[in-house]
Amino acid sequence: MIYLKLLFSFLKIGLFAFGGAYGAIPLIRDVVLANGWADPAMFANLVALSEATPGPIMVNMATYIGSRQAGVLGAAAATFGVVLPSFLLLLIITVLFHNLIRHKTVQAILKGVKPCLMGVILATGLSMLLAALSGEGHTPALDKTACAIFFFLTMADTLYRKWKKRDFSPILLIILAAACGSILY
């Protein structure tokens, strides 16, 4: 039954997604591609769409995939699966272990996990960037339009930082990327 498959697939993701949404993208990608719920190009678009829409990225992705596979009930099953572990963990920590986060062993574990998580996020981002710039085919061919958009956004960000001496708004960057994609594709 598709509802149970969505529930348990996203429950696994929710259980092992340590470090937030960006750390969960590789897990979600593996599950989605293994089940044939999306192809790599569609998944890359889903990540971009999930970042551009309000709400947590993991929840947005789970809801969209669940909805695409089994309608409203599928969306509910996938969303429930991805949020249940975090909800239960926070409930347990809040009730039983209020001072646990201050413990030196817990702090040491979290400091040890952080570099690993950063590597996973960097590897996923580079993999998705290379996939987006090389097009959707099996033979690596440079997608000139994607490269042009990437170059334009990088230059806009760099010039803004030099001119204003502060970071470019991520919201404005997403809007610019969406406008470029809409115009050029």
Please outline what is shown here.
This protein has 7 helices and no strands. By secondary structure, it is mainly alpha-helical.
Give structural notes.
- With 185 residues, the protein is mainly alpha-helical.
- The chain is 81% helix and 0% strand.
- It has seven helices and no strands.
- Helix 1 packs antiparallel against helix 2, helix 2 packs across helix 4 and helix 3 packs across helix 4.
- The longest helix is centred in the middle third of the chain and has 40 residues.
- It is globular.
- The model has no long low-confidence stretch (mean pLDDT 85).
Core attributes:
mainly alpha; single chain; 185 residues; 0% strand; globular; 81% helix
Can you give the mean pLDDT? Answer: 85
Task: Give the distance, in angstroms, between the N- and C-terminal Cα atoms.
Answer: 37 Å
> Which range best describes the helical content: under 10%, 10-25%, 25-40%, 40-55%, 55-70% or over 70%?
over 70%
Please provide the ordered H/E string of secondary-structure elements. Answer: HHHHHHH
Shape: globular
Strand content: under 5%
Q: Rg from C-alpha positions? A: 19 Å
Mind sketching the topology for me?
Elements: H1 2-16, H2 21-34, H3 40-52, H4 57-96, H5 104-134, H6 144-164, H7 170-184
Helix pairs in contact: 1-2, 1-4, 2-4, 2-5, 3-4, 6-7
